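Hi support team,

I'm filing this because I wasn't sure whether my run with adenosine-5'-diphosphate finished correctly. The job status page said complete, but I'd like someone to confirm that the output block is well-formed before I use it downstream. Pasting the exact inputs I used:
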Amino acid sequence: MYAEVIVDVAHSDVDKIFDYACDGNICAGMRVAVPFGNGVTTGFVMRVKEKTDVPPAKLKRVLRAEEEFPALTEESLLLAEKIAARYRVPMALTLRLFLPAEMRTGKVSSRRRTFCRLAADLPPIPPRAKQQLALVAFLEENGEADSALLREKFGGALKALEERGAILSEKRRVFRDPYTGSAGEAPSRTLTDGQLLAVQKVHATDKTVSLLHGVTGSGKTEVYLSLIADALKEGKTAIFLVPEISLTPQMLFQLRARFKSKAAILHSGLTAGERFDEWVRLREGEARIAIGARSAIFAPVENVGVIVIDEEHDGSYSSESSPRYNTFDIARLRADYNGCKLVLGSATPSVETYRRAKAGEFELIELPERINARPMPEVHIVDMRREVRRGNPSAFSSLLRERLQKCLGEGNQAILFLNRRGYSQTVICRDCGYVAKCENCDVSLTYHSEEDCLKCHYCGARYKMLSACPQCGGKHIGYVGTGTQRVVTELKKLLPAARILRMDMDTTGGKEGHFRILKEFAEHRADILVGTQMVAKGHDFPQVTLVGILDADMSLHFPDYRSGERTFQLVTQVAGRSGRGGEAGEVVLQTYDPENYILRFAASYDYAGFYAHEIAMREAMSFPPFAKIVRVMVTGDREEETLGALREVYKKLQMLYAAHSEDFLFFNRMHAPIKRIRNKYRYQVLMRLAGGSKVLQEIYAACSASDYKNVLVYVEENPGNLS
Ligand code: ADP
Ligand code: ZN
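And here is everything the job wrote out:
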């Protein structure tokens, strides 16, 4: 027998099949150790066959299988090939997507424990050996127990009994359970008519993809759970993707309560061992629902019955490291392979997805009302220019102050949203205009009041706060722009009795970071939650009746074709946290641009209006989805080398441009908007391709064909972030 092996080395030079001789116990999908070059390396068996063209003298043998079972399923092997071809990356890199990182590094393996029970013929035990008798009684009652537990409870008695031949022991694998403590019972719910209809439509349509467009609070989660339960009933498995599970502990509890150990939850808060075990439980079919962020789309489940992508518009579904895949594309491949349904859900679908649904490619399912016909919260748009003119330069308009007081006075809770952490956006010398900047990155620094230092939000570097201007020596250092820390400081002055929580990247470190804050707020041990976009995600706090959006313009004027769409999504999502319980909610939206159409549509929950306006603009400007923005990034430590690589890439791309100029709506090479991040120089070739263009594959080829020394070259499609 011969095995076709891809070695686990992510380099284009060795990105090909190598044949090895092997025994009959080796099968496709296994990880194996093989001699390679002068050493031994791990490889993946793609296929096993009867014949090889390699002459016997040159043929080497597979040394051993790394696991007894094939780590990669047949489907994984097939998908890996497609992904490698699509994004022009080495196979090894795409195969790795399907394995837990812990497995490859070999640092984690299954945990084994010794279990003890009593021998059938118990030898006599002297009455004075009290501990030994107690242990025997314990096992008589419990049947079996972990040896570690017995040693802890009864000390040396276990060893003594073993020597008497009274104990039978056996080593067995156990799974590390990341969720100690019970999840409680799932509330039994009957689906509303709308929810039931949505479930039926997904089943009935002959389209693979359904878009569930339901307003915030319309009960989308129940629809997903119902579809997942249906898949399990048919003996199938399910994949459920969410943007970031640690941000939605309520969802996690619901899933655990409903599906118990059938659900494997893959999230960043788990230890390496726990993650590995969850993966093994899925691979072996012991768990049948894979729940997690983007990477859970590679979960090793077979016979998939449904795939759900919640909050499908979320930017986290695009990978930002190689291969830069789009989660939807992979989900689509898996749905086709398994012949199952793919369900996308959102209150604010991306313009591209909605267009495909309207065009009939996806089944469009609408849930236009909140559960129990609760009203959508009323949105008040506040013109902040008027506030300034009236002599109120603070972050809180008079309306927001008044509503905050009222909300707290009635014993309710409020959420304040501001998409900037730290104290101020930057510090500036009021005498000469000097702005403090990072030494490693081409960006200004943010003042953090709690640590009294300046931080770079791109590389994390810290600097001492300025006591005087390094340029002119002036002492008038000013803070520009408000961050979450400053909001909390001002809020404490405004409402001294209020209990305030802050949730942003600075307060959510550690394993339980988000969880602790969200729990405290959910238990009403705080009145106001101040935070960045983390507070906008899916939370369901019934006591929140007021949401304040402090600066709606921040994302609006971002130089990016998607800034309008993002702002609409963000405003709708944050606003959607208000009034989810028995009492009606409201929203105060502060802006310097109160006539802005995006904000107007968001304030009236008019997705259709927003979409019609946005899609017309995109078409007129030839922006996605009518064209594709492609960026080739070239980054390196040394400017000369980086520029050298840029020139080379550019030359190849220019040839493509010359040959297919009708496909290019835009073609230019330049500095990236941020010229340096983490001491790496950044250049880009920016292109816009006409819809339906086939040039993309050739662009990938041009960028992957040569290896640039010390310089990284990569392709991004419709990048989420153009900085
Ligand atoms: P969405 O994800 O659409 O914003 P959720 O799934 O969070 O909405 O549901 C909103 C609220 O309605 C939640 O508190 C949920 O528990 C409740 N809910 C959902 N479906 C039902 C139902 N069929 N009966 C009663 N309450 C429901
Ligand atoms: Zn920096």
